[in-house]
Design a protein that fits this description.
By secondary structure, this protein is of the alpha+beta class. The chain contains 4 helices and 12 strands. It has one domain: tt1808, chain A, CATH 3.90.1570.10. Helices cover 18% and strands 29% of the residues. The strands form 3 sheets. Strands 4, 5, 6, 7, 8, 9 and 10 form a 7-stranded mixed sheet that branches. It starts with a strand and ends in a 20-residue tail after the last helix.
Amino acid sequence: MARAFDDLPRLSLEEFLQFDDGTDIRYELRDGWLHAMNPPRPGHNIITTNIVKIWDRVSPDLERCRSIVTPGLVINVARDDYYIPDVAYACEQLADARYIKEPAVVAEVLSPSTERDDMRTKLPLYASVPSIMEIWLVGSRERWVRVHVRQGDSWTVGLPATGSGSVESRFLGGPVLLDDIYRGSGVPADMPARGHHLQPD
């Protein structure tokens, strides 16, 4: 879960990009305020790694187009915001970049402490980025995946897949098995989905 540090001065985006507190803590910047990110659990990291492997299968050239884990993403350069999706896929030069500029796909791996923020705050922000064609929401404690796909100026939302089901991805050109997404994560296929995140309220 992100924790705000209201006792610190607000930072501009440029100040934030130069910020270093001497720790390995990851921060987002939201309207100029620092938000610390909790370190993910091992199962969360395994799911993230699996998504990277799945997405990178479609890359025509991994030197140019590839998945990036926890990249910085500036939604609007005019605002002092810097968000960190769990995974993004982009085709751009990243050697010296401080953040990606035109991701094609982003994914958030939902944890109980972050899913409300991911769905209420981050999802609509990602949907506002013109380059993003697909947004994946992926459960970390249960098998639950939902894919949002851009259709012109609007978005279509597929039904969530659970268990050993599959989701359709236009980006990947077909179905994706949840068995591949959750391989090695320890999340069993027969665990029933809680259902409370089926509709972000």
